[in-house]
Specification:
- There is one protein chain.
- The protein has one domain (1-84).
- 49% of the residues lie in helices and 0% in strands.
- The protein has helices at residues 34-50, 60-83.
- The mean pLDDT is 76.
Length: 84
């Protein structure tokens, strides 16, 4: 079974509303996808290791693209492992 990077990183039961303040409202934006969560974790690690002052010459977009590519690589490796 191939992992879908667009699935929620924290799936909710259909019977439990995601937004407790508005049980009728379910939105596709009420959660982070697996890809977004892994990319955010990669960026958090990058910033914790290098900070913002140590890498001020690095273009922010480059760091973001790197973190997303790391997320994609991890999801691909996990998907390949499940298929094996």
């Amino acid at each position: 079974m191939k992992l879908d990077p667009n699935n929620s990183a924290f799936p909710q039961s259909e019977t439990k509303p995601i937004n407790p303040l508005n049980a009728e409202h379910r939105s596709e934006y009420d959660y982070l996808t697996k890809r977004e969560l892994i990319a955010a974790m990669a960026m958090q690690g990058w910033l914790a290791s290098f900070g913002t002052t140590d890498c001020k010459d690095v273009i922010r977009g480059t760091v973001a693209e790197f973190c997303v590519s790391m997320a994609d690589a991890l999801l691909a490796a996990l998907s390949a492992k499940e298929q094996a």
